[in-house]
Amino acid sequence: MSSSLTSSLPLVKRLGLGTLAAMAGLSMAACGAGGSTGESETQSSSQSESAAPVNTPEADALPTVTPGKLTVATGEPAFSPWVENDDPESGEGFEAAVAYAVAEELGFARENVVWIRTPFDTVIAPGPKDFDVNIQQFTVTPEREKAVDFSSPYYTTTQAIVSVEGNTGADAKSLADLKDVKFGVAAGSNAAAILEEQVAPTKEIAVFNSNDDAVASLKAGQIDALVTDLPTVLYLQAAVLDNGVVVGQFAPVAGDGDQFAFLLPKDSELTPAVSAAVDALAANGTLAELENTWIAEGASAPVLK
Question: Where in the sequence does UniProt note compositional bias of the Low complexity kind (predicted)?
């Protein structure tokens, strides 16, 4: 935002001078005022230009949806600890902070990061996208990689179960104890596949448009438990659910846990640059620092076997 500079004319009095001299003096003062105004406008323009957010040349050269801007998509709503207060523009929350760190690594000024909202399940479908990158706990899977691109992973976690005291399975100690639980999952997540593989529940798994809808169903007693990533489960138990219970977490399917990564349109020209930025943040310790800041250190849950 440019500031307005105002110049004022000094009052010059020349006592004892004739009218002609006085008029000449006023004329000179007016000329001086004109010069001051021009200088003021130049300074104002210069300040405005210097205040404008500036990308690096490398960022401006990237083929983004809007030239000079990085359009980042996330969920609606976005939950803690990933985004605090459903306000990604604040940069608060793990994924919001990671997005801004990646943007900076790419060379974008913070003001040139534009946020939009997208449904989780439609984003992983094939087709054109209206964003450059999308960050909302997308687990990298071979099936999804057929339709979209993924960056290098920025976080690794496991799927876990949250329930409410008194619900079926709330006191489960093993996978066998979960057979008769009515589970809910968010559409597009890999939670249903994990349940089928490790539990094989006798009741049909309820699929919701979002975790928000699944939580509402859990509160209403329509499902017994919700399966989602461990940090979200811990947050729901601590801050959202009355008498919430963290039942436990599933053992990592491939030994490394679920890897979250930025999602990009299939064959995006930005994928190598975004992956390089994530790799750089992992190497210099930024990702670990942000994880410690926004995701509880040592947060865990019993592994169900």
Answer: 38-52
